[in-house]
Amino acid sequence: GLKTYIYEEETSISIQFINKDLAILFKDIFGNNALNKKIPNIILNSPKNIISKFLYGYLKGDGCISDYYIRFTTSSKTLAYQLILILAKLGLRGRLYTEKPRISFFRGKD
């Protein structure tokens, strides 16, 4: 079976799977680290209803909704441009904003 561990921190929940083949597959499909994350081609080429579901899930993990806008956050330029692309497929206009990196520490991460 697949060994699974869940770690809850103050600001995040991490799920860890212990399986080398699955790790290699995920790195290939989604990218190796935060700076290299990408949306899989199967999502990029999906119908609008699948893209909408993907964006909803992404919003729940790395986004926020205010009174005036919806924001998706990433440190990956590739992922940022892909988000703009799939928003356009839904008829929505996206903007790209860059912020200077802030030095911060999250418990459990270096």
Topology:
Blueprint: E1 3-8, E2 13-18, H1 20-30, H2 41-44, H3 48-62, E3 63-65, E4 70-72, H4 77-89
Antiparallel strand pairs: 1-2, 3-4
Query: Order of SSEs, N→C?
Result: EEHHHEEH
Q: What's the number of helices? A: 4
How large is the radius of gyration?
Answer: 16 Å
Number of strands: 4
Q: Give average pLDDT, whole number.
A: 87
Name the poorly predicted regions.
Answer: none
- Give the percentage of residues in beta strands: 15-25%
- Biggest sheet layout: 2 strands, antiparallel
Shape: globular
Class derived from helix and strand content: alpha+beta
Overall helicity = 25-40%
Measured between the Cα atoms of the first and last residue, the distance is 30 Å
Query: How do the strands line up in the largest sheet?
Result: 1-2
Characterization of this structure:
This protein has 110 residues and is an alpha+beta fold. The chain has four helices and four strands, in the order E-E-H-H-H-E-E-H. It has a two-stranded antiparallel sheet with strand order 1-2. A hairpin with a 4-residue loop joins strand 1 and strand 2. It is globular and about 45 Å long. It starts with a strand and ends in a 21-residue tail after the last helix. The mean pLDDT is 87.
Structural features:
110 residues, alpha+beta, two-stranded antiparallel sheet, globular
